[in-house]
Write a structure and sequence with these properties.
The chain has 377 residues and is of the alpha/beta class. The protein has two domains: 4-184, Rossmann fold; 200-376, Dehydroquinate synthase-like, alpha domain. Helix content is 45%, strand content 17%. The protein has 13 helices and eleven strands. It has helices spanning 31-39, 57-69, 90-102, 117-129, 143-149, 187-204, 206-220, 224-242, 259-269, 277-294, 300-312, 329-336, 366-376, and strands at residues 4-10, 17-24, 44-49, 76-81, 110-115, 135-140, 154-157, 166-169, 174-178, 349-354, 357-361. The strands form three sheets. Strands 1-2-9-6-5-3-4 form a seven-stranded mixed sheet, sandwiched between helices. It has a two-stranded antiparallel ribbon with strand order 7-8. A hairpin with an 8-residue loop joins strand 7 and strand 8 (166-169). Helix 5 packs parallel to helix 6 (187-204), helix 6 (187-204) packs parallel to helix 10 (277-294) and helix 9 (259-269) crosses helix 10. It is globular, with a radius of gyration of 20 Å. The termini are far apart.
């Protein structure tokens, strides 16, 4: 199966930026072929999820990758950190920065992030501020990272107030998504990653949503052709959206469907595994459609159809599906205040007119929102 290459092209005022996303099967053993022009002769800091040190299938893929890039550079330094949102904090960032500096890096050095979304986010942020900015490459190993967080240049860490409030926009110079890495994921992580895939169909492409409705069983069984297609199509849709809105001044906000609710929900779980990102966004998307329905914007039939697909994937669809999550209307609204889409202290939500057509709702009516949350919490 030949790999697909999606070129992310960003329209900037002074000059454009383009980089490849390579999607395929068994790419780790031939990574040097794709990365030769980016890293030959350079000092490389490989920041990886420490889980890849375990002797399992993912360990062999990690070893294949290291062996491959050693063919094109002799200067490789490793930094292993824990995955999970608890890692995305200022102390862990400082550890990475000081460790990188101890390797006597220069501005030609680069970081490779090998892991899930957390590894990519914090590694990319470190790259954006080390020596005022060095290059980095994403090797996303989870479904969520392959279809979402590794693409588009959002980097950062969490605050006690909410997720991703500290960070920067810093684009990678290349992304390699190896579908085979997904087989080593825990089932819970894999299913949660599908939420971000479904999101793309909901915001922009009803035919993609229909494909997921029809083929979700094959996808859950790791059909390589269909996995490759959903990763590729997700990246294509995201690239179309961010092309003219790199820093989320407009339509890129559509990619946050379900995330205003989801990020708030995650904070109530305290990033301890009670609820993970994809599960929180699953609930968030269902809430966004229910709110759209309540406001008379989206039909009951369309809302039920969305909820039905999440149900079939055994994903949570309601706050009541998560035990030991203490959520109230007032607490939720307090969390919403830290959402990055807000303007002039007015709440902004991403809602849907129908499947495949999301829109940005500014100046949310607080009475409607409060009544809605009272029904859902």
């Amino acid at each position: 199966m030949n790999p697909e290459t999606i070129n992310i092209s960003l329209n900037r005022k002074m000059a454009g930026l383009s980089y490849p996303i390579i999607v395929g099967v068994n790419l780790m053993s031939e990574s040097e072929k794709f990365l030769r022009k980016f890293i030959t002769g350079k000092k490389v800091i490989l920041i990886h999820d420490e889980v890849f040190l375990n002797k399992d299938g993912s360990y062999s893929k990690f070893t294949q990758f290291k062996t491959a890039i050693k063919k094109i550079t002799s200067s490789i330094f490793l930094i292993g950190i824990a995955g999970g949102d608890g890692t995305k904090n200022i102390n862990q960032l400082n550890f990475i920065l000081e460790k990188c500096l101890s390797f006597e890096i220069d501005r030609d050095s680069l970081i490779i992030a090998f892991g899930g979304g957390v590894i990519g986010d914090i590694s990319g942020f470190a790259a954006s501020i080390l020596l005022r900015g060095i290059d980095y490459i994403q090797i996303p190993t989870t479904l969520l990272a392959q279809v979402d967080s590794s693409v588009g240049g959002k980097t950062g860490i969490n605050s006690d107030k909410s997720k991703n409030l500290i960070g920067s926009f810093h684009q990678p110079i290349a992304v390699i998504a190896d579908i085979n890495m997904l087989r080593s994921l825990p089932e819970r992580e894999f299913r949660a990653g599908l939420v971000e895939v479904i999101k793309y169909g909901l915001i922009k492409d009803i035919n993609f949503f229909k494909f997921l409705e029809k083929n979700y069983k094959d996808i859950l069984n790791y059909d390589e052709f269909k996995l490759k297609y959903i990763v590729t199509r997700s990246c294509e849709i995201k690239s179309e959206i961010i092309k003219n809105d790199e820093k989320e001044n407009g339509q890129r906000a559509l990619l946050n469907l379900g995330h205003t609710f989801g990020h708030a929900i995650e904070t109530f779980g305290k990033y301890d595994g009670t609820i993970i990102h994809g599960e929180a966004v699953s609930i968030g998307i269902c809430l966004a459609f229910k709110l759209s329905r309540k406001m008379g914007i989206c039909s009951q039939i369309e809302t039920d159809r969305v909820i039905d697909l999440f149900n079939k994937l055994n994903l949570p669809i309601s706050l009541k599906d998560i035990k030991n999550l203490s959520v109230t209307t007032s607490k939720m609204i307090e969390k919403f205040k830290y959402d990055k889409k807000n303007k002039n202290n007015r709440l902004t939500f991403i809602l849907n007119k129908r499947i495949g057509e999301s829109f940005i709702k500014k100046n949310m009516n607080m009475n409607v929102l409060t009544e809605f949350l009272d029904e859902e919490t």
